[in-house]
Amino acid sequence: MNAKLAVRPVMPRLSARRLVGLSVSAVALAAGLNLATAAAQAQGAAAPAASQQRMAFDIPAQELSRAILALANRASIQILFDGARLQNLRSTAVSGNLTPQEALARMLDGTGMGYRFTGPANVTLFEIPRSGDATVLPPVTVEGRSSQVETATDSVDGYVASRARTGTKTDTPLLETSQSISVIPRDQITDQNAQTLNQVLRYTAGVTPETRGAVATRYDMFTIRGFDAHRYWNGLKQQDLYYFAPQLDPYLLERAEVLKGPNSTLYGQAPAGGLVNQVSKRPTDEPLHEVGMEVGTNNHYRLTADMSEKVDAEGKLAYRFTVVGLTEDGQMKTTENERVSIAPSIAWRPDEDTTLTLFGLYQSDPKGNSYGGIPPQGTVLANPYGTLPMDFYDGDPNFEKFVRHQTALGYEFDKRLNDIWTLRLNGRTLHGTLAYDSVYANGVQTDNKTLNRGTATSRESMTSYVFDNQLEARVDTGPVNHTVLGGFDYQVIDGHYATGFGTAPTLNIFNPVYGQTITVPNRNRTNVDAEQYGLYLQDQMRLGGFVVTLGGRHDKAERTTTTVNTGAVARQNDSAWTGKAGILYAFENGLSPYVSYSEAFTPQSGTDFAGKPFDPEEGAQYELGLKYQPPGSNSLFTAAVFDVTRSNLKTGDPAHSGYSITVGEAKSRGFEFEARHSLTRQIDLLGSYTFLDTEVTRDNSGLQGKRLGAVPEHQASAWIMYHMPRDTSFRGLSLGSGVRYVGSTVNPANTIQVPSFTLVDAALNYDLGALSDTFAGVDFSVNVKNLFDKDYVASCYYGEWCAYGYERTITAGLRYRW
Q1: Strands 546-563 and 222-224, how do they pair?
Q2: Quick one: CATH architecture of 16-127?
Q3: Using CA of residue 61, residue 66, residue 70, residue 71, what is the dihedral sign?
Q4: How far apart, in Å, are the Cα atoms of 305 and each of 80, 184, 292, 347, 633?
Q5: Residue 557 buriedness (CB in 10 A; 0-12 / 13-18 / 19+)
Q6: What is the pLDDT of residues 450-505, one digit of tens each?
Q7: Among 133, 177, 103, which residue's Cα sits nearest to residue 40?
Q8: Where are the domains of the chain?
Q9: What are 149-196's pLDDT values in tens digits?
């Protein structure tokens, strides 16, 4: 009866052979987990305070492994067990208002299994030796690719995330979120070597990245479900000015979360397409040291470093320091791209209920490629003089300027006040400056070779403040469990821009002569002061397998612009109520069907003929979806049909020439499918398909009935990453390949059709430590994007402006971890 339990530390690699037998719930497996020696007959050691929070359970008697997963997801705890030992065992039914520890003890009653809490949210199951059995339990070994705990903000093991915060602003399983969300984890970003946010989104259902092709790398320009979308950083909006727009290097990110469709109920003024939330790398519990160097085509050179470690022995203070340096030639001739980005962060955890994380950023982009375009003549339309080359440049190297600097300081404070209440305070201030000069294409003359050109110049400075304060309560009303979130957010922009526009000398597109004399236009300064206040309330209600989410919000947005040289002042005041509702049922077999409705609003500047400010643009979405995560598998399949409407769009006033009225409307209806699956430890798979039926349904300028510009009807992608088994002569080698199909698109007037295109990507990674211990920690990688160097036009996004896509790019790098 007093036999000792001896269990080895958990190792950081999840093998395919153990994946069926070892199950990991949604929150956290801490690598290096050590189980203390204990009496084998003990049903459970003293559990942390976090396990004493009471909540409603209703888990019927069933196969024990499935019951354990249901309890882990309900209680947001990590339960580690050997599935082979649970075969042919059935659980005891668990029902009532219980603590997770009480529920687990009741579930295991009579099964011959015991449990032990090894952390605030970590539990290990073990078999109780029979009386007189003096043998110790066999070692439990778990292998995984990451030692980090998965939460809604931390690292993910492989390509499949199980939780996200973006859809609800609470740490919620994706299977309980009644809106479509795609999570792109760090491992996928690294394997595909994505170096812009557009590249991060290339294999995501519902997203059309790189609508400006290879030209506008200085901006993150993409659409979701056919409409514009905003960028967020750690749940807080990235504010723009005129030409200034913040941009994060993907190397700084732990993951990117794509929330599809209107979302103003939680985030305030936002477009109907949705948002992308970029989640920063954070200090880790385990030491992390990484440096890398990379070279590639177009004189590409990149240096990276990522360091994280505890500062004190108790682990209450930890830091992370991430650095990127980049220089390369742009695809367009004579253009260049340069960047230095430094992102320090500090996490302070004085106790298990309190966390304060500070995020810093300094990023300098001394050069930013270009922002021009190509004419349709000689690209998607026939030209008697031939076809323009992929590196055609419509600007002038002596005039081109793009110098952007941004510094930011943000914080996240999380305090669990008691078993019910949790307080979260989030904020960030960002200061940015921009010096911008550009010569851009403005249509080809009738001779099919003379390009008209214009000039644009701007000098900008902006300081923004974003705050989001939340109070969360987890309470029960009878059998219904509630996660109630109330919040107040506040956004401020204080900035100015001095812009000017003019003309530039024409250019022969088939024999361009650069270095011509170009006059810098006079700049006129405009001051901008903008504020937004928002109050929101959300309730996630759970009853058995049902999850009902209801939310409402009220916003007030104010914006004042002052034209300095004329003294003209324009004021815009808007307010809006928005709401959302969703119902989902989480079956025990991993299926979660749902239906939801959500709204959005976006203020619009200007006035109509009567001098009345324009009403805000509105958005509404109906969505019907299905999510599926087979129990015990590392996979997630999602499918959704949707109907998104943008209304109150500005269109021409038929009664007053030169003025607008807000009666325009556009719709996007479609279907999405996305699969993320790890078949074995050796294989990671991604797949997606998107169908979009878009239409301008109301318009006075001739667009009614036409498709939305630069939005394909069909998109599809697939990616596979194969890691050679350790017991073969090719151990250490990983091979990846992907294919991306983008269907044909049109320009907004539907007068130009852009052909579809299919691109192939490839990746190779080799762990040199497999050759010799001398090279332990060293990886060699090669990535090829657009493997077959296909020439293609990404889109004709506006008027006579089109954009080439990326030519073939090759990078090779070395990374050392210790």
Answers
A1: unpaired
A2: 3-Layer(bab) Sandwich (3.55)
A3: positive
A4: 33, 21, 6, 19, 33
A5: buried
A6: 999 999 999 999 999 999 999 999 999 999 999 999 999 999 999 999 999 999 99
A7: 133
A8: 16-127, 163-278, 279-817
A9: 457 887 887 899 999 999 999 999 999 999 999 999 999 999 999 999
Give the count of beta carbons closer than 10 Å to the beta carbon of residue 418: 9
pLDDT value for 70: 83
Rounded Cα distance between 553 and 260, Å, is 19
Non-local (6+) Cβ contacts of 121 within 8 A are: 27, 28, 50, 51, 76, 77, 78
Chain position carrying tokens 């240096």: 303
Rounded distance, CA 29 to CA 10, Å? 9
Tally Cβ neighbours within 10 Å of residue 791: 13
Does an H or E element contain 663, and which?
strand 660-680
What was the pLDDT predicted at 434? 98
Distance, in Å, from the CA atom of 249 to the CA atom of 278, rounded to the nearest integer, reads: 10
Mean pLDDT of the chain: 89
Determine the residue type at 265: T
- Quick one: pLDDT at residue 141? 34
Q: Is 705 left (phi over 0), alpha (psi -120 to 50) or beta?
A: left
User: What percentage of the chain carries pLDDT values higher than 70?
Assistant: 90
In which element (H, E) is residue 303 found?
strand 300-310
Q: Cα–Cα distance between 392 and 372 in angstroms, integer?
A: 10
Over the stretch 111-139, which tens digit does the pLDDT of each residue have? 888 888 766 677 888 888 654 444 344 33
3-class state of residue 102 by DSSP: helix
The dihedral through the CA atoms of 274, 278, 284, 288 has a sign that is positive
Regions of the chain where pLDDT drops below 70: 1-54, 118-120, 129-150, 680
Quick one: tokens of 686?
A: 């991604």
Rounded CA-CA distance 371/513 in Å is: 19
Give 107-147 as a DSSP string: HHTTTTEEEEEEETTEEEEEEPPPTT--PPPPPP--B-S--
Token digits of residue 782 = 């090669």
- Over residues 379-405, the pLDDT tens digits come to 999 999 999 999 999 999 999 999 999
Name residue, tokens 């269907």. 743
Q: Which token pair is 180?
A: 């479509």
CB atoms within 10 A of CB 465: 16
- What is the DSSP annotation of 350-400? EETTEEEEEEEEEEEEEEE-----B-SBTTTB--TT----TT---S-TTT-
pLDDT at position 16: 31
Q: Which residues pair with 211 in a beta bridge?
A: none
Residue 119 is predicted with a pLDDT of 62
Block residue for tokens 């050679």: 724
Topology (CATH level 3) of domain 163-278: Ferric Hydroxamate Uptake Protein; Chain A, domain 1 (2.170.130)
Closest CA to 614 of 602, 623, 627, 628: 602
Name the phi and psi angles at 627, rounded to 5: -120, 145
88: which 2 tokens?
């042919």
Q: In Å, how far are 171, 234, 728 from 731, measured between CA atoms?
A: 37, 37, 5
SS (H, E, C) 453-521: EEEEEEEEEEEEEEEEEEEEEEEEECCEEEEEEEEEEEEEEEEEEEEEEEEEEEEECCCCCCCCCCCCC
Query: Which is nearest to 220 in space by CA: 267, 273, 183?
Result: 273
CATH 3.40.190.10 fits 279-817, yes or no: no
Instruction: Report strand pairing: 172-173 vs 78-82.
Output: unpaired
Structure-token match 């760090």, residue found:
186
Tell which residue, 169, 128, 156, has the closest CA to residue 41.
128
